[in-house]
Design a protein that fits this description.
It contains 5 helices and 22 strands. It has 409 residues and is an alpha+beta fold. It has 4 domains: 87 residues, Beta Barrel (conserved putative lor/sdh protein from methanococcus maripaludis s2 fold); 57 residues, RNA polymerase II/Efflux pump adaptor protein, barrel-sandwich hybrid domain (OB fold (Dihydrolipoamide Acetyltransferase, E2P), Beta Barrel), CATH 2.40.50; 103 residues; 89 residues, Elongation Factor Tu (Ef-tu), domain 3 (Beta Barrel), CATH 2.40.30.
């Protein structure tokens, strides 16, 4: 009997030891959990920002190409050869400035010959005018002789035949005067013809000098020194720097957000570039397909919408054909509450921020947004200028009531 009881006790001893150990382990775990649960949470270092009163914009950035309107293509006024091109693309020109000369030496020779003929005709005309004067004097003498003879004929002192001969001499003198006057008239007509021919030759020579019709900029020179040209051959193209435009190709998504007359800022692509203000002047009413040499390229490129920005004032420095950056202002608000965009988070579509309360703890606060800019966002409600907003750290995630400490700047 005693042996049986002793064997049962020996069998139960391991189970009792294991149960006691498990109970002790559980007690220790519970104590550790309670310790960790009640241990003070370490403060999370954060960066604080404050809302500010300021301006905010919603913009689109695009690239564009500088273009000059009012373009004029000068053509060759005659056939010949280019003697000298005096300008290059990009040069600014004044109205009346000589841009190009054509070689036309035979016209200079023709002009010299024409001037010589004119001088000869002038000399001939002067001789004919002298003849007129002489003929008039001779006619006057013969008429006076007839007057003197008239009384003598009446008195019978001279024969009537002598009087008739005098009448014949008067008729001859008058004929000589008429011939001289006719020769002068013909000479005057010939002189005018020679002068008109001279003007025609001079115009041909003038046509060999191509001058600028406007104060402009040389956009393209199509010929070189020594090139032969036909009548109305394109020589060079000028643009009007007072009509400065930016041509753009917008995506259909951006084009849907842009309207005519919206503010635009144009600058050269690069750091510290000067900004030129303008307005959206035109927006094409439909999208265009890009030109491509084959169907594969056509499918790989998206449709675009042409748009034009006109500068308020000519820049005087932008180079036609150059690529520039265009910032189009879609919306603009002034003197509103703005906040760093990094501070705004969203939960199920509702924007919110973390603010620091009086106990240096993080608290979640819902806000309403207005315009969202590149770096800042407009706060329309839910926040005021006195509150300090937390830039959420990556780790650990913020929770309501979590202690925070401000990072040293």
């Amino acid at each position: 009997m005693q042996k049986t009881a002793s064997k049962g006790w020996q069998a139960a001893t391991p189970w009792l030891v294991w149960s006691g150990g498990l109970a002790a382990f559980s007690l220790i775990g519970a104590l550790i959990y309670l310790f960790l649960l009640n241990r003070p949470t370490a403060a999370v270092p954060v960066t604080l920002v404050q809302p500010e009163q300021g301006d905010i914009e919603n913009t689109i950035n695009q690239s564009g190409t500088v273009e000059l309107r009012g373009q004029v293509t000068l053509k060759s006024p005659t056939e010949g050869a280019v003697e000298r091109v005096l300008v290059s693309p990009g040069d600014r020109t004044r109205q009346g400035q000589t841009l190009l000369t054509l070689r036309y030496p035979e016209r200079q020779t023709a002009l010299a010959n024409q001037e010589l003929q004119i001088q000869r005709q002038i000399v001939t005309l002067e001789r004919e005018r002298v003849r007129i004067q002489e003929a008039k004097e001779s006619l006057g003498v013969e008429i006076q002789k007839r007057e003197d003879m008239l009384s003598l004929v009446r008195e019978g002192a001279i024969e009537k035949q002598r009087f008739l001969d005098q009448e014949s001499r008067i008729r001859d003198a008058r004929a000589t005067l008429r011939d001289a006057e006719a020769a002068v008239n013909a000479g005057v007509i010939e002189l005018e013809r020679l002068k008109l021919e001279k003007q025609r030759i001079q115009q041909q020579i003038q046509n060999s000098i191509v001058n600028s019709p406007i104060d402009g900029v040389v956009l393209d020179v199509k010929v070189r020194d020594g090139d032969g040209v036909e009548l109305r051959t394109d020589l060079l193209t000028l643009g009007d720097p007072r009509q400065e435009f930016i041509e753009m190709q917008l995506s259909t998504l951006d084009a849907a957000r842009i309207k005519v007359n919206q503010l635009a800022r144009v600058s050269i692509i690069g750091p510290n570039a000067k900004i030129y203000n303008g307005r959206v002047q035109a927006l094409y009413p439909q999208a265009l397909q890009p030109e491509a040499s084959d169907s594969n390229n056509r499918q790989s490129k998206q449709a675009y919408v042409p748009a034009v920005v006109k500068l308020n004032r000519p820049s005087g420095t932008l180079i036609p054909g150059a690529q520039v950056n265009v910032e189009i202002v879609l919306e603009q608000r002034r003197n509103v509450l703005v906040l760093n965009s990094e501070a705004v988070q969203r939960a199920e579509g509702q924007p919110f921020v973390w603010v620091r309360d009086r106990d240096n703890k993080a608290q979640k606060q819902e806000v309403d947004l207005g315009i969202e800019g590149l770096l800042t966002v407009e706060i329309t409600s839910g926040l005021d200028l006195t509150q300090e907003v937390i830039i959420p750290p990556v780790e650990p995630p913020l929770k309501p009531g979590l202690p925070i400490t401000v990072k040293n700047k």
